[in-house]
Amino acid sequence: MNNNRRRNFRSRTQKNNFRRRGSTINSSTSSFKNNGNVNFSRNGSMNNIHNVEKTMQKFQQLAKDAQSNGDPIMAQNYLQHADHYLRRLNELSERKESLTEKNTQEKNVTNQEDTREKELNQTTN
Description:
Order of helices and strands: HH
Structural class: mainly alpha
Helix content: 55-70%
Largest sheet: none
């Protein structure tokens, strides 16, 4: 056996049968334009309100653990992280509320237009 011998690096051919969240990177559709992050794509996990809440709770628990272990600096660090995710959670919940309000307003407008059309059809008949 020759365990001391190093293997040469063999480059793999690119396989297209693995999962990838994004499609091809196009400069016109990419959200990361002209900042050097052409090959970097986010998976959107911090846009999910449940993931943000879970991450916030994780940092709060880490802060409690650090405080009980007698490390106030790490506890403060974790609390700052938790505060960041709390702000992100508030931002996402506000965005969700505004979208639901907008959708209900649009539904009300379309319902009013439908009733007006029905009334006009009934009066013309």
